[in-house]
Amino acid sequence: MLLIVALALGAVVSLLGAIGLLIPGILPTGASPSLVATAVGAPMAAAVSIAAGLAAVAVGVLGLRGQRGGGAGDVVGAAPGGLRIAAVIAALLVAALIPGGIIPVAGYSFVLVVAGLVVVGLVLLTVRRPVIGVIGIALVVGVVVLAALRLPLTTFAPRVLDALAPRLGELAVSFAHLVAAGALAAWAIGEPAVRGRFAAGVRRHRRAVTAAAALCALPYVFCRLTWLTPWPLFAPTGALAPDILMVGLLLGGAMLAAGLLTLALCLPWADRFPQWMGGVGGRPVPAGLVVVAASFVAVMFTVGGVDLVRVAATSGGALAVGVLELLLVLPFWLWGPLLALATWGYAMHRGRLDERLAAPRAIGDRGLSDTLRARATAELDAIEEREVHRSVR
User: Fold this and answer.
1) Are 56 and 30 in contact (CB under 8 A)?
2) Are the CB atoms for 227 and 249 separated by under 8 Å?
3) How many CA atoms lie within 13 A of 2 on its CB side?
4) In the 8-state DSSP scheme, what is residue 230?
5) Which of 53, 55, 52, 44 is nearest to 21 (CA)?
6) Region 234-253: what's the mean pLDDT?
7) In whole angstroms, what is the distance from residue 71 CA to residue 283 CA?
8) Taking 50 as the threshold, does the pLDDT of residue 218 lie above it?
9) How many CB atoms lie within 10 A of CB 88?
10) Bridge partners of 100?
11) Mean pLDDT of 93-115
């Protein structure tokens, strides 16, 4: 499925490049040009778009042909290393063609997504544990009501939708590029096999990498928390109006949620749904769903982070913050690559975990004892460690 998406949207990216080359200025460019357009100009960026789209199409065709011949899967299948490297390069090229200003749009939109996730989580908690769920709903409602007494919370969603409405064309172009790049990245890093020294290192240190990625959320969250004190950091000059305070705190909450979701990649939650989630508690989390979602976000963070740094560096002092402040408070330029590595490590971990879970289950079907099933699991763990050390050597 990922390769089909990459192939189809790769063709769309090429078509957009051809239109931009033949009819300059007809396509929306967003708040600022893409990284490629900034570096080489709009005409050359259109040519790069054609080439990057065709590269995505080629990767999709070759990958699908390999799957047909070898039976490999989208997220957990094997493919030649060279083709996966080509997919990563094509993903980076396509992502670098995304119009600028994607991070602010994603931030405001994610606030609404987090609100939806909270509602869904409370519903699932109430289904499994009604008393605790009702208490949780009461607490959330109480917090929202108290906040609404001081902040214009009801105006946030309409303001976001009103701001996005005039940019639908730009958002459609950005979405096509982002999904194409994300599909290529998810297919490239979704292979569970540990191949080579670097891959073995990523899997072995995946928890540290994931924790480092999650820590990238803390500077912005801390700065937004200071808005509740007399010494607000990373804030407009002067007194904070209620609507500005509301937006800042909501964005800080969304950033905290993004950090927690990143950290979850190395927690048991990413392997099995928590027991308190009614209907799905205790069931395995679909590895493909996690890999695809995290890959999309990693692509967006990487390109958007570099774009933020570029805007700050070329603003000539027009921004209220300096380049160094932006690098430290909004480290998307670091968060994106670390999240990609964490996702790759998660994919390799889940591949091994699924193998370990399947083997004792198959052995149990033949009527062997719990002792033998435990011994089989231990032997599989030992084989895995030997494979990792062999790859390192």
Assistant:
1) no
2) yes
3) 30
4) S
5) 44
6) 83
7) 26
8) yes
9) 17
10) 30
11) 87
Total number of domains constituting the chain: 1
**342, 334 Cβ separation under 8 angstroms:** no
Length of the chain: 393
* pLDDT per residue as tens digits for the range 111-131: 888 989 999 999 999 998 999
* Percentage of the chain exceeding pLDDT 70: 81
Quick one: pLDDT band at residue 374, thresholds 50, 70, 90? Answer: low
CA pair distance 256, 215, nearest whole angstrom:
10
Mean pLDDT, residues 12-17 taken together: 93
Name the amino acid, one letter, at 9. L
Q: Is the distance from CB of 91 to CB of 188 less than 8 angstroms?
A: yes
**250 within 8 A of 107, measured Cβ to Cβ:** no
Q: Residues 181, 95: contact at Cβ < 8 Å?
A: yes
Closest CA to 135 of 143, 144, 126: 126
d(CA 346, CA 267): 10
| Alpha helices for the chain (secondary structure H) | 2-22, 35-40, 42-70, 81-95, 102-128, 130-150, 156-164, 168-189, 196-204, 206-215, 218-225, 242-263, 287-314, 323-329, 332-365, 370-392
Q: 373: burial class by Cβ within 10 Å (0-12, 13-18, 19+)? A: middle
Could you give the CA distance from residue 247 to residue 101 in angstroms, rounded to a whole number? 17
Look at residue 197 and tell me whether its pLDDT is greater than 80: yes
Task: Check pLDDT > 60 for residue 391.
Answer: no
Q: 13 is in which domain, residue-wise? A: 2-392
Q: What are phi and psi of 188, to 5 degrees?
A: -70, -40
Mean pLDDT of 123-149: 90
Q: What is the pLDDT of residue 364?
A: 47
What percentage of the chain has pLDDT greater than the value 90?
37
Whole-angstrom Cα distance, residue 345 to residue 273?
Answer: 19
